[in-house]
Amino acid sequence: MKFADFVVREAVIADLKTDTKEGVIRTMVKSLLDAGKIADDEFEGIIKAIMKREELGSTGIGRGVAVPHTKHPSVKKLIGAVAVSREGVDFDSLDGEKVHLFFMLISPPDRPGDHLRALENVSRQLRDDQFCKFLKQAKTPADILHLLDDADHNQFGS
Amino acid sequence: MSEGSVVHRSHTVKVPNGLHLRPWMQFVKLAQNYKARIEVVKDSVRCDARSVLSLLSVGAGRGELIVVEAQGEDAQAAVDALIGFLDGYEDIEESS
Fold first, then answer.
1. Interface of chain A against chain B, CB under 8 Å?
2. pLDDT given at position A157
3. Residue B83 Cα distances to A137, A143, B88, angstroms
4. Which of A129, B8, B17, B96 could form a disulfide with A112 if both were Cys (CB 3.0 to 4.6 A apart)?
């Protein structure tokens, strides 16, 4: 699965202004709302579901990356948002480091395979140090989309 | 390479959703308790057992076979503990 298959292009944020876990999640879900990918009346419920998942164990997987996610019946296909924080956010990560790169995934409950394929893709690409470095340096959503497109076309390592 | 022989054991993924983020996070935390070099091998791809990014990228779906391999003074204990964890892992209702 490629980034283009799930990343909502209007839900890409280059400079997160918040420094809390809930702030990050709220801002990213809002970008999906503004992009018309989720309904108004599902907004708070989706934030709550993602925060609840975080309580089971942080999705900060180390190396400055987090993948907050949830399954939610209101989405018909897997959708994703991407955000970059210049300052980094304390996300209770596995390695204790601040998180700079966020990949949010919301998937329909009956499609666990899609969720796993997306996680695989994100993690495979983020193993490449150059890719991570360039993403952190991205100044605009267009820069980020360009990097994701490059990754989809195998411009970065494995 | 550390000294000592290589210890390995296999595991067939049983959880319906495959090995996703939460089990791998717990796996890495467990692996961090040992000194041995530990790797997870699937289809000849080798991953560092202490890197969630690395483990997630192998994509271990239900029914697939993975091997935990370790080398070093506590290799046997590490492999036993990690395979024991995978064998006993059960998904709770909330998604990964």
1. 52-53, 56-57, 59, 61-63, 65, 67, 69-71, 94, 107, 109, 112-113, 115-117, 119-120, 122-124, 126-127, 158
2. 61
3. 40, 42, 8
4. B17
Q: Considering only CB atoms, which chain A residues are within 8 Å of B16?
A: 112
- Are the C-beta atoms of residues A53 and A70 closer than 8 Å to each other? yes
What does the pLDDT read at residue A112? 80
Is B11 one of the catalytic residues? no
Written as one string, the DSSP assignment of B2-18 is -SS-EEEEEEE--STT-
Rounded to an integer, what distance in angstroms lies between the CA atom of residue A137 and that of residue A132?
Answer: 9
Cα separations in angstroms, A23 against A34, A42, B11, B92: 16, 17, 39, 27
Name the average pLDDT for chain B.
90
SS3 (DSSP) at B81: helix
Question: Environment class of residue A128 by beta-carbon count within 10 Å: exposed (0-12), middle (13-18) or buried (19+)?
Answer: middle
* Cβ-defined contact of B53 to A61 (cutoff 8 Å): yes
Residues A41-67: tens digit of each pLDDT = 999 999 999 999 999 999 999 889 999
| Chain B CB contacts of A120 below 8 Å | 56-59
pTM: 0.88
| B60: three-class secondary structure by DSSP | strand
